[in-house]
Amino acid sequence: MRPTRPRAFTLIELLVVIAIIAMLISMLLPALGKARAAGRAVACASGLRQIDTATELYTGAFDGLYPPRSSPRWVSLLATHAEVGSVYLCPEDRDAAGGTPDNLPEDRAPRSYLFNGFNDYFVDRNAGQGGVEQSNDKSMPTWGVDFPSDTCLWGEKRSESTHYYLDLLEGLGNDFTELEPSRHGLNTSNAGMADGSARSIKHPAALTPVNLWGVTKWGRESVY
Known about the structure:
This protein is of the alpha+beta class. The protein has helices at 11-61, 74-79, 119-126, 174-177, 217-220; strands at 113-116, 152-156, 165-166, 188-193, 198-202. It starts with 10 loop residues before the first helix and ends with a helix.
């Protein structure tokens, strides 16, 4: 008896196999994309915690005062206390803007985050609720934050924004015009809190029913 040769795939069978492989790939790619996005969100939160650590080192060196709003900005002030320059960028924020040409060179670096401007605190103490004082030469004391675990110190800005600080009283309010609400999924972004933690927050949970960017009673109760 002559040995039988193995039967080759027919063209139809080969096409069926290719179709099955393509279908499996199409099913796996979204899952892989979500996994990569989740990894970038975790890296962003880790970066915010490192920035928070640098902030704690800064306040420890300056009698419990946060960086002032005057030049140089927090971008370079914090970098002198910890190696945080590389974490000023969220891995998901590929088009982040930095400062403008009138800023100091070290403050022009691309960045993804806004620092709390605390202007409701200074207006409340110095000019009344209807005032417009911006406290450019003043530093917010850490002891002025009554709810550190529920007060945003850092938030993700819109990529095109050149703002350094989030001001509740500027224009419509920077919490409305400058924050990025959906960098890590539908209506989800990260925030660094005044207690040194970082968390993922669904928009607009950071703004209502309590505005976590406010430090005064009326600032926290401002309506979104």
